[in-house]
Write a structure and sequence with these properties.
It comes from Thermovibrio guaymasensis. The protein is an alpha/beta fold and 192 residues long. It is built from seven helices and seven strands, in the order βαβααβααβαβββα. Bound molecules: flavin mononucleotide. The site of flavin mononucleotide has 17 residues, from α1 and β4. Flavin mononucleotide binds next to α1 and β4.
């Protein structure tokens, strides 16, 4: 079974570290983490072509590669930094473009979990997680959170950048790890 991690940050920083923490629990699965900053993503043009032609986006850019990876995945863990209390612009752009996959419900029944990181405590992590949850639910995905032992809404962390490295709070790292564990548990149940 394949698990895809999507780093919604505009760079490879603390969100990527938290995704890597979650993926430590996914040994034995076919895993890949992609960073949106490695792709060019245009906005959805609302041309509605995808709705008429069976889900094909006529804008050709980095989206097609990501779309293929999302189709192949059994589970997707989406990570985002908090930008003004919510997800990043790049991640929202990916979500909007993913309308192509809703035409034939291609993300339905895939497992989804979310991780959010901000610079401050109470900086909007929960709202950011909920923005990712909305995307997953609208696609009919099986939404999971961090479950035990941390058990709230997914990975939620604070990160402080010190030169080129990041100090991430211990509890936040634990919640990310719990997300990986929960995805593993649910995928294992579904495999039975
Ligand atoms: C445009 C912008 C807006 C931000 N808004 C918030 C915010 O509302 N709350 C918060 O806690 N941190 C905010 N931050 C800080 C980032 O969420 C934080 O530095 C995060 O660790 C960055 O993730 P990254 O290292 O994966 O890029 C913002 C950063 C940027 C660049």
């Amino acid at each position: 079974m394949k698990v895809l991690g999507i780093n919604g940050s505009h760079r490879k920083g603390s969100t990527l570290i938290l995704l890597e923490e979650a993926f430590k629990e996914l040994e034995g699965f076919d895993t890949e983490i992609i960073s949106l900053c490695d792709y060019t993503l245009e906005y959805c043009k609302v041309c509605n072509a995808c709705k008429r032609n069976g889900g094909v986006c006529i804008v050709k850019d980095g989206y097609q590669e990501i779309e293929e990876k999302m189709k192949e995945a059994d589970a997707i863990i989406v990570g985002s930094p908090v930008y003004f209390g919510s997800i990043t612009g790049m991640l929202k752009t990916l979500f909007d473009r993913s309308r192509t996959l809703r035409v034939n419900w291609e993300l339905k029944d895939k497992v989804c979990a979310a991780i959010a990181v901000g610079a401050t405590k109470h900086g909007g992590q929960e709202h950011t997680l909920q923005a990712i949850h909305a995307w997953a639910l609208i696609h009919g995905m099986i939404l999971v959170a961090d479950s035990d032992p941390t058990a709230h809404f997914g990975g939620a962390a604070t990160a402080k950048q010190v030169e080129d490295s990041f100090e991430i709070d211990e509890w936040g790292l634990k919640t990310a790890r719990s997300v990986g564990k929960r995805v593993r548990e649910v995928l294992t149940m579904l495999r039975k």
